[in-house]
Amino acid sequence: MKVRDVLTLSVEDVALGGKGLARHEGRVVFVDRGLPGDRVVARLTKVKRTFAEARLESVESPGPARVAARCAHVEQCGGCRLQEMPYEAQCALKERQVVETLKHLGGLSAPPVRPLVPAPGAWHYRNKMEFSFLQAADGAPVLGLHERGTYDRVFEVRECHLPSPLVVEIVRLTQRFARERSWRAYHPSRHDGLARFLMVRHLPLTGECAVHLIAVADRLDGLREWAEAVAALSPEVKTVTLGLNGSRSNVAVMEEEIVLHGSGAIVERLLGLEFEVVGNAFLQTNSAQAERLYAAALEAARLEGGETVLDVYSGAGTLTLVFARAAKLAVGIESVPDAVERARRNAVRNGLGATRFECGEARRVLREWSQGRREEAVRPEIVVVDPPRAGLHPRVVFRVAELKPRRVVYVSCNPATLARDLKDFAEHGYRLAEATPFDMFPHTPHIECVARLEPAGA
């Protein structure tokens, strides 16, 4: 079996990530977009001693798990990899994935996993999308999404069913404008050109929309006219900005922001609280499901009203403020100064005085508290952790356990790192009481969880 081989395979099962499991010559073959019961023709893209990876070329006979893809870009896009599976089956697959991950990586023989909470809506749920510019061979700028598994190929988006229809309208308008004004797209390898990204937030619970064009410099022809045209699409477009990013890092962040329309900020409302959102701010991408997630985290904490809650990796304070309404004091730790300032503003906006935010890297702040090198060290009854996909550093786990909270609430966006961190917590005397998976991103392999940890003797 060689990488260039094209094989006819029968798909037996599904591994999360939009890849089906098949077998050939004693190897497991991961078939991109293969579903159980499919008989497919697939081209090998990687061959190792015990496994191989293949890209689906065609479906000879579909299995019972396959449905027609809604999106025309299904064969190019790396986003909705599971959209050819019924939504109920996606949810069952993700729940099973959490259970198996906690068993195999977390060492739990019978993990206490509750039923997965499906998203309120399987389409048009994303409140934020990022699109990339790339220069086509004929010199015209292309604005769209990256082809699956690439960083240097972009296809022009004609439709997308994850954001609102307004977001797609904004993209199509920008595509036309970029072509008409001959915008030069930035090239991620040659590091020339100007236009880099288009980032659009359309918040469903308030209806407010922000549009951010990210470029190397403010020399794109007709920027003001473009901003006026975007704002004219809908009264829900509250602000349009130009973000400047001259770094070589190919990520959609803004080093400086120029407001072209509106104030530069919009507002989302979650569980009755208002949060100001700017271009670089983090906000859960599925607002409706975020309300359920945060409500579950609050329920897992089992507050009685007199507790101090510590929120580690607090961002702009969304979870901190949710807990502040039900506790005596809520304290957030966050390393990004702008996010800390935004969290403090959000606390004032919502009239929540029983909050405090510490700016610093979590491991360092917790260490300094334990060593008495910071004033007003916190001794919380409840600790909430909401880390990035990489999970918790082992020293953060140690420092959290050192505080001896009666409960730890872990909000995870990666079951694998959650499982690893649960093993670390177990070494320091905390066990998993229960975990609830949430489908924040239908049709994708991503899973969020809310886990409740308690002292092993409790």
Characteristics of this structure?
single chain; 458 residues; alpha/beta; OB fold (Dihydrolipoamide Acetyltransferase, E2P); Rossmann fold; 3 domains; seven-stranded mixed beta sheet
Structure description:
The chain is α/β, with parallel strands linked by helices and 458 residues long. It contains nine helices and 22 strands. The strands form four sheets. Strands 9-8-7-10-11-12-13 form a seven-stranded mixed β-sheet, covered by helices on one side. It has a seven-stranded mixed β-sheet with strand order 18-17-16-19-20-22-21, sandwiched between helices. Strands 1-5-6-4-3-2 form a six-stranded mixed β-sheet, with no helix packed on it. It is globular.
Task: Provide a concise account of the structure shown.
This protein has 458 residues and is an alpha/beta fold.
Q: Segments where pLDDT lies below 50 for 5+ residues?
A: none
**Biggest beta sheet attributes:** 7 strands, mixed
CATH architectural type of the largest domain: 3-Layer(aba) Sandwich
| Cα shape | globular
Quick one: CATH superfamily of the largest domain? Vaccinia Virus protein VP39
**Main β-sheet, spatial strand arrangement:** 9-8-7-10-11-12-13
What oligomeric arrangement do these chains adopt? single chain
Strand content: 25-35%
CATH level 1 class label of the largest domain = Alpha Beta
Total of DSSP H or I helical runs spanning 4+ residues: 9
Helix content: 10-25%
N-to-C CA distance: 55 Å
Q: Give the beta-strand count.
A: 22
Radius of gyration: 24 Å
How many domains is the backbone divided into?
3
Average residue pLDDT: 94
Structural class: alpha/beta
CATH fold-level label of the largest domain? Rossmann fold
